[in-house]
């Protein structure tokens, strides 16, 4: 009999899959209740109120699975759970429709001044001329991030007769055509859109994505929405440009600090705000509860779960054999993602040598999880990697070869975009570790970790020296440097590593060098 602790208030109807499961008993109590035998709990269901810490996990030695009835897992120590072989699952698409509808409602309310007019009439006023709005029809809507929620907003916007512009590094021409949207750069959206809404995950890359410099590029009178994650839109910059009249208005559901307390945006009448209500519908709460209840039951029935956040539990012996190649695969995927930022439509993976004796499909999923990491609005792991690729119209091919290019093993991956392709090859050497030995047509040899810079340049005297001088002038220390070329005087590459990530200003200086062909920052 499995003992399931329902630690937070979760929709009772949504728990039916577990209530109907004869091998489970549900205990609806808080983790702090003295009569809860934590050491006997097999599964725990939480929302955002309960924080699952390493300390709590130490008190639950029998715990097998943690289920979060929602999208985020910020309140769960996933690393500690993974270390203990505990599976963590969530409900990534349970609130998709709810958040999309809330965003669209905020957009309509913003354009038609509905909250302001409502308050005015409630105050016994009748100021029709004070609340003249704008139609959505014919407006250019810029969507930053076309994941599940962004896609649903695009569908609704097309029905309203809007022109939909999309910025998403993984948007292929085929998917853009199917959704009838226009693929753009971020600058194109900033310059052309009448309304801009953000729907990306909050990562190091997206934090402050819409900042003062970005807002300067927008049309006068542009409208902004953020119903995704606080911090993507620079709130202080937004307040500044609303105050000077450049921005026509904003609708904000999420804040960098919640609750926000006194906030500079609150003094403006053309700003409407809600207290993080994107997922706050009866349907969404039922959906997320049902999803995680089904996931826990599926796990108890010894079937693969669909929305695992961490690695599935495997035996120690198997994991030790596959671990070096698992890590190498993720690193290759992450490097490829950061070197090929266009919409990839095909990934071709070739395994050769001793690695072919392992379960390569597991490595393919690991590679995809590295490829998608921090680039889309859902967490991707070995469980949902192939489905994520399918949803984004990316063909994934896996081949076994006898040619390991002189190494005991090799993993070679080629990413294909509309007009070019990019190939990376890696190997794992016992007692030496993972190495990247081939990139974009060049032989190379470097350790895939830390802060890297990929530089493609003309093979001319002084290029390496000029790169070094610029970095030295910026007080940036080069930790390692590896070089490669095809022939003297042609194109060549260098891969540099640093103790910290290279800043934008230094990257701009390097880009201005005459012989530089391509630069890519890589963080692993």
From TrEMBL:
Pathway in which this enzyme or protein is active: Amino-acid biosynthesis; L-serine biosynthesis; L-serine from 3-phospho-D-glycerate: step 1/3
Pfam family, one: ACT
Name used for this protein in its record: D-3-phosphoglycerate dehydrogenase
Family label: Belongs to the D-isomer specific 2-hydroxyacid dehydrogenase family.
Ranges for domain ACT: 452-524
EC number: 1.1.1.95
Source organism: Robertmurraya kyonggiensis
Keyword match Manganese: no
Entry keywords, A to Z: Amino-acid biosynthesis, NAD, Oxidoreductase, Serine biosynthesis
Reactions performed catalytically: (R)-2-hydroxyglutarate + NAD(+) = 2-oxoglutarate + NADH + H(+); (2R)-3-phosphoglycerate + NAD(+) = 3-phosphooxypyruvate + NADH + H(+)
Job description of the protein: Catalyzes the reversible oxidation of 3-phospho-D-glycerate to 3-phosphonooxypyruvate, the first step of the phosphorylated L-serine biosynthesis pathway. Also catalyzes the reversible oxidation of 2-hydroxyglutarate to 2-oxoglutarate.
An example molecular function term from Gene Ontology annotations: NAD binding
């Amino acid at each position: 009999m499995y003992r399931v602790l329902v630690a937070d208030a979760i929709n009772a109807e949504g728990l039916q899959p577990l209530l109907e499961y004869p091998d489970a008993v549900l205990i609806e109590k808080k983790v702090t209740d003295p009569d809860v035998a934590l050491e006997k709990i097999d599964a725990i269901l939480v929302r955002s109120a309960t924080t699952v810490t390493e300390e709590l996990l130490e008190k639950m030695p029998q715990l097998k699975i943690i289920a979060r009835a929602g999208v985020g897992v910020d309140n769960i120590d996933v690393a500690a759970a993974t270390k203990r072989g505990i599976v963590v699952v969530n409900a990534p698409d349970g609130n998709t429709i709810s958040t999309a509808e809330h965003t669209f409602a905020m957009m309509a309310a913003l354009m038609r001044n509905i909250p302001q007019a409502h308050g005015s009439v409630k105050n016994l006023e009748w100021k029709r001329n004070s609340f003249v709005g704008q139609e959505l029809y014919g407006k250019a809507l810029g969507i930053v991030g076309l994941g599940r929620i962004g896609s649903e907003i695009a569908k609704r916007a097309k029905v309203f007769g809007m022109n939909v512009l999309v910025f998403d590094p993984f948007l292929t021409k085929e998917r853009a055509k199917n959704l009838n949207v226009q693929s753009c750069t971020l600058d194109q959206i900033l310059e052309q859109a009448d309304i801009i809404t953000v729907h990306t995950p909050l990562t190091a890359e997206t934090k402050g994505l819409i900042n003062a410099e970005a807002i300067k590029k927008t049309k006068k009178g542009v409208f902004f929405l953020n119903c995704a994650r606080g911090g993507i839109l620079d709130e202080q910059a937004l307040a500044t440009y609303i105050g000077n009249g450049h921005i026509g208005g904003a609708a904000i559901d999420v804040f960098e600090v919640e609750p926000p307390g006194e906030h500079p945006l609150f003094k403006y009448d053309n700003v409407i705000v809600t207290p993080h209500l994107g997922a706050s519908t009866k349907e969404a709460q039922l959906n997320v509860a049902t999803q995680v209840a089904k996931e826990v039951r599926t796990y108890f029935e010894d079937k693969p779960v669909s929305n695992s956040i961490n690695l599935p539990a495997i035996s120690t012996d198997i994991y030790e054999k596959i671990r070096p190649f698992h890590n190498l695969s993720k690193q290759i995927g992450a490097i490829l993602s950061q070197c090929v930022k266009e919409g990839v439509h095909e990934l071709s993976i070739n395994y050769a040598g001793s690695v072919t004796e392992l379960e390569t499909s597991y490595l393919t999923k690991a590679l995809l999880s590295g490829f998608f990491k921090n680039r889309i609005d859902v967490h991707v792991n070995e469980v949902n990697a192939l489905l994520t690729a399918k949803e984004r119209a990316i063909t994934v091919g896996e081949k076994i070869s006898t040619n390991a290019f002189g190494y005991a093993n090799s993993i070679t991956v080629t990413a294909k975009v509309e007009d070019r392709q990019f190939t990376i090859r890696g190997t794992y050497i016992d007692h030496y570790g993972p190495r990247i030995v081939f990139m974009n047509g060049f032989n190379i040899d470097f350790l895939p970790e830390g802060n890297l810079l990929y530089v493609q340049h003309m093979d001319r005297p002084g290029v390496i020296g000029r790169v070094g001088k610029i970095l030295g002038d910026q007080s940036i220390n080069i930790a390692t440097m590896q070089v490669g070329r095809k022939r003297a005087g042609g194109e060549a590459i260098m891969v540099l590593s640093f103790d910290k990530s290279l800043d934008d200003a230094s990257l701009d200086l390097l880009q201005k060098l005459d012989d530089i062909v391509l630069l890519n920052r890589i963080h692993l």
